[in-house]
């Protein structure tokens, strides 16, 4: 059966990196029998500029109909002074929420060829393979009340609410336990239960769930310590489960252990396993339009799409192997380069992966 894939390139480097990921999908369709149909829709600042809305109705409708979404990146200084609901970021948040994409998987894997680019010493990161499971449709990103106003004394004020109900915690918790069970069998739940009521509920629910997964070793860590441990001894972690905001921050930290944020893919899944696939990084306005962005996070997101939604684990393996082989050949975009290797443009890196897959 033909799978419908919606490409939402977005802003900044989004279109550049999506172009390379689409070339990968095309070669898989042409040479490896992947049965797909591609469509494209506007999102983010590009959609604000042309339709006055970061997630226009027709884009949302197309997203609902798709079997999987390939998302580039959104945002940029051009739209930073827009009201909150007209900012590109709110289009992405609405998309996640409307599609029920509550489980965000962010694997931080060090390709051995890139040990030089990691922020940490080789011996500390060699073999690094962490899965961060981030809750994506709740917490302080979506909690009500949220807003801004003026105090009685006439001072400006603003507020957000970090709120979870137990069902939201149960569904992400179950997903995380299942993922941990299929990996190294260790799950670390990251919270701030020493201070926040919402974190105490999070911890209580994780403990309750643990009884159904006796084969998974559950531990808890406060988020400040987790941030420190990630850069002190990251290999102590196998699977991490955490809330929306903490997961956002910890996944960017984990990115630098792998050499560059340009290496980190992600999958955002609903209850049925349908999903949106996007690099963890943003629109990188500082390098947009220069053809230097690393497309590997997006190409590796295609691999996650193949594995989790299209049920073509065989092709996912091929894409991941191709990435390794291209790195073996010494090809590097600027963010992961070293003295001995040649610098590749976004397009050259994408082209090398495509050639490898032919
Ligand atoms: N999922 C998303 O669409 C997403 C994610 C994060 C940030 N954003 C948005 O992106 C905009 C810029 O945010 P930011 O600068 O804080 O984060 P960013 O991730 O866009 O960039 C941070 C740094 O990483 C570099 N970088 C990012 N991706 C890279 C790649 N593929 N190759 C090489 N270098 C890369 C950038 O050049 C920059 O120096 C903001 O509007 C933000 O809201 C969007
Ligand atoms: C752009 C922003 C809304 C988004 C988030 O905070 O979730 C981004 O930082 C991410 O990591 O996907
Ligand atoms: Mg982020």
TrEMBL record:
<dbReference type="InterPro" id="IPR019818">
    <property type="entry name" value="IsoCit/isopropylmalate_DH_CS"/>
</dbReference>
<dbReference type="Pfam" id="PF00180">
    <property type="entry name" value="Iso_dh"/>
</dbReference>
<keyword id="KW-0432">Leucine biosynthesis</keyword>
<feature type="binding site">
    <location>
        <begin position="76"/>
        <end position="89"/>
    </location>
    <ligand>
        <name>NAD(+)</name>
    </ligand>
</feature>
<feature type="binding site">
    <location>
        <position position="224"/>
    </location>
    <ligand>
        <name>substrate</name>
    </ligand>
</feature>
<keyword id="KW-0460">Magnesium</keyword>
<comment type="similarity">
    <text>Belongs to the isocitrate and isopropylmalate dehydrogenases family. LeuB type 1 subfamily.</text>
</comment>
<keyword id="KW-0560">Oxidoreductase</keyword>
<comment type="subunit">
    <text>Homodimer.</text>
</comment>
<dbReference type="InterPro" id="IPR024084">
    <property type="entry name" value="IsoPropMal-DH-like_dom"/>
</dbReference>
<feature type="binding site">
    <location>
        <position position="224"/>
    </location>
    <ligand>
        <name>Mg(2+)</name>
    </ligand>
</feature>
<feature type="binding site">
    <location>
        <position position="252"/>
    </location>
    <ligand>
        <name>Mg(2+)</name>
    </ligand>
</feature>
<dbReference type="GO" id="GO:0009098">
    <property type="term" value="P:L-leucine biosynthetic process"/>
</dbReference>
<feature type="binding site">
    <location>
        <position position="106"/>
    </location>
    <ligand>
        <name>substrate</name>
    </ligand>
</feature>
<dbReference type="GO" id="GO:0051287">
    <property type="term" value="F:NAD binding"/>
</dbReference>
<keyword id="KW-0963">Cytoplasm</keyword>
<feature type="binding site">
    <location>
        <begin position="282"/>
        <end position="294"/>
    </location>
    <ligand>
        <name>NAD(+)</name>
    </ligand>
</feature>
<keyword id="KW-0028">Amino-acid biosynthesis</keyword>
<keyword id="KW-0100">Branched-chain amino acid biosynthesis</keyword>
<comment type="pathway">
    <text>Amino-acid biosynthesis; L-leucine biosynthesis; L-leucine from 3-methyl-2-oxobutanoate: step 3/4.</text>
</comment>
<feature type="site" description="Important for catalysis">
    <location>
        <position position="141"/>
    </location>
</feature>
<feature type="binding site">
    <location>
        <position position="248"/>
    </location>
    <ligand>
        <name>Mg(2+)</name>
    </ligand>
</feature>
<comment type="function">
    <text>Catalyzes the oxidation of 3-carboxy-2-hydroxy-4-methylpentanoate (3-isopropylmalate) to 3-carboxy-4-methyl-2-oxopentanoate. The product decarboxylates to 4-methyl-2 oxopentanoate.</text>
</comment>
<dbReference type="InterPro" id="IPR004429">
    <property type="entry name" value="Isopropylmalate_DH"/>
</dbReference>
<dbReference type="GO" id="GO:0000287">
    <property type="term" value="F:magnesium ion binding"/>
</dbReference>
<dbReference type="GO" id="GO:0003862">
    <property type="term" value="F:3-isopropylmalate dehydrogenase activity"/>
</dbReference>
<dbReference type="GO" id="GO:0005829">
    <property type="term" value="C:cytosol"/>
</dbReference>
<keyword id="KW-0479">Metal-binding</keyword>
<feature type="site" description="Important for catalysis">
    <location>
        <position position="192"/>
    </location>
</feature>
<feature type="domain" description="Isopropylmalate dehydrogenase-like">
    <location>
        <begin position="4"/>
        <end position="353"/>
    </location>
</feature>
<feature type="binding site">
    <location>
        <position position="96"/>
    </location>
    <ligand>
        <name>substrate</name>
    </ligand>
</feature>
<protein>
    <recommendedName>
        <fullName>3-isopropylmalate dehydrogenase</fullName>
        <ecNumber>1.1.1.85</ecNumber>
    </recommendedName>
</protein>
<feature type="binding site">
    <location>
        <position position="134"/>
    </location>
    <ligand>
        <name>substrate</name>
    </ligand>
</feature>
<keyword id="KW-0520">NAD</keyword>
<keyword id="KW-0464">Manganese</keyword>
């Amino acid at each position: 059966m033909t799978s419908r894939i919606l490409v939402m390139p977005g802003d900044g480097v989004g279109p550049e990196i999506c172009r390379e990921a689409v070339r990968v999908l095309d070669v898989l369709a042409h040479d490896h029998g992947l049965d797909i149909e591609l469509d494209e829709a506007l999102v983010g600042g590009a959609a604000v500029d042309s339709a006055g809305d970061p997630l226009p109705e027709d884009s949302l409708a197309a997203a609902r109909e798709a079997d999987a979404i390939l998302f580039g990146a959104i945002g940029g200084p051009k739209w930073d002074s827009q009201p909150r609901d007209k900012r590109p970021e709110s289009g992405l948040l609405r998309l996640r929420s409307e599609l029920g994409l509550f489980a965000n998987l962010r694997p931080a894997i060090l390709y051995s060829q890139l040990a030089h680019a990691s922020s940490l010493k080789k011996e500390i990161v060699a073999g690094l393979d962490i899965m961060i499971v981030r809750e994506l449709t709740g917490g302080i990103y979506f909690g009500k009340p949220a807003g801004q106003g003026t105090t009685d004394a006439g001072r400006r004020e603003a507020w957000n609410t970090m709120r979870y109900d137990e069902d939201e915690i149960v569904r992400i918790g179950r997903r995380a336990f299942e993922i941990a069970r299929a990996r190294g069998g260790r799950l670390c739940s990251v919270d701030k239960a020493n201070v926040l009521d919402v974190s105490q509920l999070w911890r209580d629910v994780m403990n309750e769930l643990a009884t159904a997964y006796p084969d998974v070793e559950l531990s808890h860590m406060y988020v400040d310590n987790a941030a420190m441990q990630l850069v002190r001894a990251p290999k102590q972690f196998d699977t991490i489960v955490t809330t929306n905001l903490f997961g956002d921050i910890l996944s960017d930290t984990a990115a630098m252990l792998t050499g560059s944020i340009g290496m980190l893919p992600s999958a955002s899944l609903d209850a049925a396993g349908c999903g949106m696939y996007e690099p963890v990084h943003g629109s990188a306005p500082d390098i947009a339009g220069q053809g230097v962005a690393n497309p590997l996070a997006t190409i590796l997101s295609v691999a996650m799409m193949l594995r989790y939604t299209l049920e073509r684990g065989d092709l996912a393996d091929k894409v991941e192997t191709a990435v390794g082989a291209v790195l073996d050949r010494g090809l590097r975009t600027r963010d992961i380069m070293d003295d001995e290797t040649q610098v590749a443009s976004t397009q050259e890196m994408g082209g090398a992966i495509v050639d490898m897959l032919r």
